């Protein structure tokens, strides 16, 4: 009898029911700010997949990851006899007010005076709070829609301004180039005219006498005094436009790469050709097609977000890696490199495989293959199970690396590198890709372990990048 009285006192003093399901607490958790408690399943369902929500009772914000078990409530609920809990489960349709429990040994005659009124008041309070919560959620939804509409309108205006500015600068730049070309043409024509006059004069003098007077001696071609610098000026303009395009891409893609949808424009190397080259230059430098002998082995490889250095940003559907000026916010990974390297997600242990990498936008890089167990601080080509070709901007030298042994390759800097992996022959070959392929170096592979495409970027102080090319058969 004493135990029943103690239980009644406990149930009257402490609320052991969840305000969401109106049942005894099951796996109760405490919210970090307001300290209200709910069943873990109830509060998880209430959040509906959101990482952050407001308390159902007081609206104070919290995050699911900050929930903490309420061990005190667990201990108190464990004091309630099992038959009481089972009876409570047998009557799920009856609303049970907060702080009141229907015990089998408590009759209506045994209720405290005013207890029924308290139960009705508790239910009314819960309904009022639920209604208020619905009202607040609808109000938040309305505000979110209004704010999103304002932001979209502002972004549209900003992009319109940027497009107008870019179009205006395009017109001015093309006008500048045309004016410079006309000025250079005029200067060349003037120089040709002067040279023709001088040739005629010298021809007349030579016909009259073989001993030229001092005043008629040849003073040198005017072309040596009026050197044409059109190429240098146009190169400066072209470089400035490419730099502007690269910086705009960094601002929009690098900082928000993880938030942007995976809908990308056409291949980035094709964009560069269209935007930064004149039609004449594009005709002279067509986009190279994949060598026909490699087409049947082409593989679609992409960068691995878990095997990339934190200062390297991955964009363009995981096909481009660039030096980042902002925190990238990658998830923690035990395999993340501690130096400016990245590997692909795909590995190869048999057969033949081929992929291409655009290297023209980096002053220093390495392209190669490596075993999965390469250390987080091991540089590509400096270990027994990694092979690469490397271009170092400071040295302006192309080299092949394996086991920390350098082999100098007396070749120009490749703008695109093709990698051909032949695992039956245990070789990996690197090609410079232009309008045709040119072999740079071939390594013999001394491992049977799966190999991954791997890359290295030289300087974190410059905005260099590498792009995996879309290789299409011709």
Fold and architecture overview:
Helices cover 36% and strands 20% of the residues. With 474 residues, the chain is an alpha+beta fold. Among the domains are: 2-145, Zinc/RING finger domain, C3HC4 (zinc finger) (Herpes Virus-1, 2-Layer Sandwich); 288-468, Jelly Rolls, CATH 2.60.120.920. The protein has a seven-stranded antiparallel beta sheet, with no helix packed on it. Helix 5 runs antiparallel to helix 6 (230-254). The termini are far apart.
What number is the mean pLDDT? 78
For the record, the CATH architecture of the domain at 288-468 stands as Sandwich
Which overall shape is indicated by the principal axes computed on the Cα atoms?
Answer: elongated
**Pairing-aware structural class of the strands and helices?**
alpha+beta
CATH homologous superfamily label of the domain at 288-468: SPRY domain
Tell how many strands the DSSP assignment holds.
19
The CATH class of the domain at 288-468 is Mainly Beta
Which regions have little confidence, pLDDT < 50, spanning 5+ residues?
92-111, 220-227, 261-288
Number of alpha- plus pi-helical segments: 8
User: How widely separated are the two ends?
Assistant: 91 Å
**SSE succession:** HEEHEEEHHHHHHEEEEEEEEEEEEEE
CATH topology of the domain at 288-468: Jelly Rolls
Please state roughly what percent of the residues sit in beta strands, choosing from under 5%, 5-15%, 15-25%, 25-35%, 35-45% or over 45%: 15-25%
Order of strands side by side in the largest beta sheet?
6-9-18-11-12-13-14
Helix % is: 25-40%
- The Cα radius of gyration reads 38 Å
The major β-sheet equals: 7 strands, antiparallel
């Amino acid at each position: 009898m004493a135990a029943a009285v103690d239980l009644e006192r406990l149930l009257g003093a402490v609320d052991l029911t969840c305000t969401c399901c109106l049942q005894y607490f099951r796996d109760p958790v405490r919210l970090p700010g307001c300290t209200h408690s709910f069943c873990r399943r109830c509060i998880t369902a209430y959040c509906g997949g959101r990482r952050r929500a407001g308390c159902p009772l007081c609206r104070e914000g919290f995050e699911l990851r900050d929930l903490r078990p309420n061990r005190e409530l667990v201990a108190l609920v464990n004091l309630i006899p099992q038959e009481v809990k089972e009876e409570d489960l047998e009557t799920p349709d009856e609303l049970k007010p907060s702080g009141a429990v229907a015990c089998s040994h408590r009759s209506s005659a045994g209720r405290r005076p005013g207890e029924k009124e308290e139960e009705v008041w508790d239910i009314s309070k819960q309904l009022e709070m639920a209604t208020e919560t619905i009202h607040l959620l609808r109000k938040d939804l309305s505000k979110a829609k209004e704010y999103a509409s304002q932001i979209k309108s502002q972004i549209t205006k900003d992009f319109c301004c940027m497009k107008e500015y870019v179009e205006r600068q395009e017109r001015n730049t093309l006008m500048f180039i045309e004016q410079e070309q006309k000025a250079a043409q005029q200067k060349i024509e003037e120089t040709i005219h002067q040279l023709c006059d001088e040739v005629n004069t010298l021809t007349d003098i030579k016909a009259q006498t073989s001993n030229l007077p001092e005043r008629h001696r040849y003073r040198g071609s005017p072309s040596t005094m009026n050197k044409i610098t059109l190429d240098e000026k146009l190169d400066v303009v072209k470089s400035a436009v490419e730099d502007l395009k690269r910086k705009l891409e960094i601002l929009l893609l690098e900082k928000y790469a993880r938030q942007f949808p995976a809908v990308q424009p056409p291949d980035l190397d094709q964009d560069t050709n269209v935007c930064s080259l004149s039609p004449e230059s594009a005709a002279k430098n067509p986009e190279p097609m994949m060598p026909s002998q490699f087409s049947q082995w082409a593989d679609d490889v992409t960068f691995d977000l878990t095997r990339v250095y934190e200062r390297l940003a991955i964009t363009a559907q995981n096909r481009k890696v660039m030096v980042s000026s902002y925190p990238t916010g990658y998830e923690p990974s035990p395999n993340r490199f501690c130096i400016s390297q990245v590997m692909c997600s795909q590995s190869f242990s048999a057969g033949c495989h081929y992929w291409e990498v655009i290297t023209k936008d980096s002053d220093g890089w390495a392209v190669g293959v490596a075993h999965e167990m390469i250390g987080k601080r091991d540089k590509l080509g400096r270990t027994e199970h990694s092979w690469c070709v490397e271009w170092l901007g400071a040295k302006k030298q192309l080299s092949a690396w394996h086991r920390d042994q350098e082999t100098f390759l007396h070749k120009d800097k490749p703008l695109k590198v093709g990698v051909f992996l032949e695992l039956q022959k245990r070789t990996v070959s690197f090609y410079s890709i232009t309008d045709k392929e040119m072999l740079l170096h071939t390594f013999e592979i001394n491992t049977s372990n799966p190999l991954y495409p791997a890359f290295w970027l030289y300087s974190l102080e410059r905005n260099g990048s590498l792009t995996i090319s879309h290789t299409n058969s011709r």
